[in-house]
Amino acid sequence: MNRNKLIMYMHAGSANHGCEAIVNSLCHMIKEKAVLVSYFGREDEAYTLKDLCTVISERRFEDHRLMHVLYYIYRKLTKDETSFIRYRYHGIFGKEMSPLAISIGGDNYCYDSMLHDLQLANRAFEEKGVKTMLLGCSVEPELLKREAIVKDLMKYHTIIARESITYQALADMVAEYIGQQDLTESRIPRILCYPDPAFTLGKRELPLPKGFAEGNTVGINISPMIQDNEKSAGITIENYRELIRHIIGDTDMQIALIPHVVRAQNDDRKPIHQLYEEFKDTGRVIEIPDGSCEELKGTISRCRFFVGARTHATIAAYSTCVPTLVVGYSVKARGIARDLFGTEEGYVLPVQSLKEKDDLKNAFGWLVSAEEDIRKKLEQMMPEYKEKALLTGKEVDRLWEECSQPQRI
Would you list the domain boundaries of the chain? Predict the structure, then answer.
């Protein structure tokens, strides 16, 4: 691995267009052409990242079962846990290591299934003397009660939270940790708060499909993820049905069902197609096909309202001044809305709170009633908000320059 290449890692692949949007935006911000270690490199070649960075696909153990067994035996014998990471990130671990590796944060730290790999990767880079940065992240405050997570986060050189709830939780974590440990300043991560890089994502406007009324269409996104977090089985899809019935029956607006993650095991198109089949005969509902993060943003930007479950679908709407209702399930939705509007009340409907079938319809009703005020607020604040988001790129450039300086003896 060439030491002069900036590394980005923990990227899940561009079929999750939120992951694509973060990397795409960051690549446009920074001076260096980075090397991206991707879990699904073929996906990145298919969308927008192939010309923005050098994509290296991870070795995946599911593709090499025998190697998985051999590495498991090796780790048991040697206790060398980070060998798994060195195997997976084969293209960047060697005698010559990059001085800086960036964990493309997003909501990775919100999922228990990812925590072990995040910790191992951070430790693997630390063992090689590589500084790490976690950026654009949301972290559930409750997670910071776990000692292992705190120790992991304290290993980063810099952490950039994308919303204030996470920022405050991380700042409190550092203050408490310092109070319990004898640390020098050099061992304390720098905690910053800048908006998600994807607020600066460019958009590509394709010809609109038949049935899409520009400026009078409600964009709707639903995901299996929020369905997994519902408290009452089936309540989420029933709320979306009721919302669609309301829009068709009580307004003159069209409806566009828009996916934002299209991976087989977590595919927005499945619940979207289910809804489309139920309402297609009305002539008021259309199904938007998959596209790149820039193309989907171009479609979302031409909606009158947006109701979304995927964070980066809602960021595409916010950043193009479309009044937006988030059907959220974690800190990221609450934090982003609070930073934009001073409160999440009315702007975020936690999926866990859905009890009656008309909860989403009623929340949408408030959004419609406040349409002009919301749009004006977004139009007024978004230029400055995007400028602040660009500071993430400046921080990466600053740290890269610092890390790349020849070491003095």
Answer: 7-201+388-404, 217-369
Is residue 70 scored above 80 in pLDDT?
no
More confident residue, 69 or 342: 342
pLDDT, one tens digit per residue, over 325-356 is 999 878 999 999 999 999 999 999 999 999 99
Residue 21 has a CB neighbour count (10 Å cut-off) of: 31
* Topology alike, domains 7-201+388-404 and 217-369: yes
Per-residue model confidence (pLDDT) at position 183: 58
Return the HEC string of the chain: CCCCCCEEEEECCCCEHHHHHHHHHHHHHCCCCCEEEECCHHHHHHCCCCCCCEEEECCCHHHCHHHHHHHHHHHHHHCCCCHHHHHHCCCCCCCCCCCEEEEEEECHHHCHHHHHHHHHHHHHHHHCCCEEEEEEECCCHHHHHCHHHHHHHCCCCEEEECCHHHHHHHHHHHHHHHHHCCCCHHHCCEEEECCCHHHHCCCCCCCCCCCCCCCCEEEECCCHHHHHCCCCCCHHHHHHHHHHHHHHHHCCCEEEECCCEEECCEECHHHHHHHHHHHHHHCCEEECCCCCHHHHHHHHCCCCEEEECCHHHHHHHHCCCCCEEEEECCHHHHHHHHHHHCCCCCCEEEHHHCCCCCHHHHHHHHHHHCHHHHHHHHHHHHHHHHHHHCHHHHHHHHHHHHHHCCCCC
Specify the pLDDT at position 71. Answer: 58
Residue 1: pLDDT over 60: no
Which CATH architecture best describes the domain 7-201+388-404? Answer: 3-Layer(aba) Sandwich (3.40)
The Cα–Cα gap between 360 and 25 comes to 31
State residue 409's pLDDT score: 41
Q: What pLDDT does residue 408 have?
A: 45
- For 175, counting Cβ atoms within 10 Å of its Cβ (0-12 exposed, 13-18 middle, 19+ buried), the class is exposed
The architecture CATH gives domain 217-369: 3-Layer(aba) Sandwich (3.40)
Nearest Cα to Cα of residue 140 among 158, 159, 166, 168: 166
pLDDT digit string, tens, across residues 83-127 = 888 888 888 988 789 999 999 988 899 888 899 999 999 999 999
Average model confidence (pLDDT) across the chain = 92
User: Residue 360 phi/psi, 5° resolution?
Assistant: -70, -40
